[in-house]
Amino acid sequence: DVKVTQSSRYLVKRTGEKVFLECVQDMDHENMFWYRQDPGLGLRLIYFSYDVKMKEKGDIPEGYSVSREKKERFSLILESASTNQTSMYLCASIPGTTYEQYFGPGTRLTVT
Amino acid sequence: AQSVTQPDIHITVSEGASLELRCNYSYGATPYLFWYVQSPGQGLQLLLKYFSGDTLVQGIKGFEAEFKRSQSSFNLRKPSVHWSDAAEYFCAVSTSGTYKYIFGTGTRLKVLA
Question: Considering just the CA atoms, what is the radius of gyration of chain A in Å?
Fold first, then answer.
């Protein structure tokens, strides 16, 4: 079974803090994604990566950055957290041979 | 621009009743289409997918979906709903040759005992 894990299920941070969300997949997938999920808005793509050290902006990259130093790990960074970044963050990965996304359990981030 | 519309935000059905969740997409070529389910507090799980071929696709948990090109639709169906099907359902489209998905806004299903 494919496993995508995220470092925290729940996280509470203060405004202005630097926040790291970690995602690890164990199936050697090339493509990895970060989404945020908000009620009534569905999932919106923040960033994605199709290879180590490669990244591309999604639909809502403002206020976020990413890092992919190893194939299995894709990190989402909030340089200076703000209250409007309170959300559910979902990581996903796709192997190079299919178009099926495999999702992690999500991190619910609250910025106060 | 590509888009996915799920017109029903909430749907309530009785256990044992049939279910149809609607999904419409806007895309010029033949898209890759997906339905995902999200149980409370969980990530998304793939129910089924359509890439090409037979327009009626079977998925897990007794779900099926039908691709109708003329209507730009990919509706999800289940003949008899179980209480454990209560969850949020997302339709998604991906364009051929890319791995980027566009998700609908989701339909939350409530099942009455």
Answer: 13
